[in-house]
Amino acid sequence: MIALFANIIINILALIQLIIILDAILSFVPIDAVYKVREFTGMVTEPILKPFRVLQERIAPGLMIDFSPIGAIFVIGIIRRIVIGVLYF
Fold first, then answer.
1. Which of 18, 30, 39, 87 could be stapled to 6 by a disulfide with Cβ–Cβ 3.0 to 4.6 Å?
2. What stretches in the chain show pLDDT beneath 70?
3. Ramachandran quadrant class, 78 (left: phi over 0; alpha: psi -120 to 50; beta: rest)
């Protein structure tokens, strides 16, 4: 039962990472071409990326490149490893 719970959490976190990557890639595509997909990915990723954007703005105000997806993917990866370590060992 615990293994099933752990697998669900790990897979959800992996899916969120993939959606963040998809959102970052689609940010280079004109919005009209993929409006519905961008709307969905933005709805999922915005609450996750917002704290990283605030942190980036505090560290480097006015930076033209958004590094928040990299930070979010990194932190989600750490959370996945912690879940694996706690629930499997």
1. 87
2. none
3. alpha
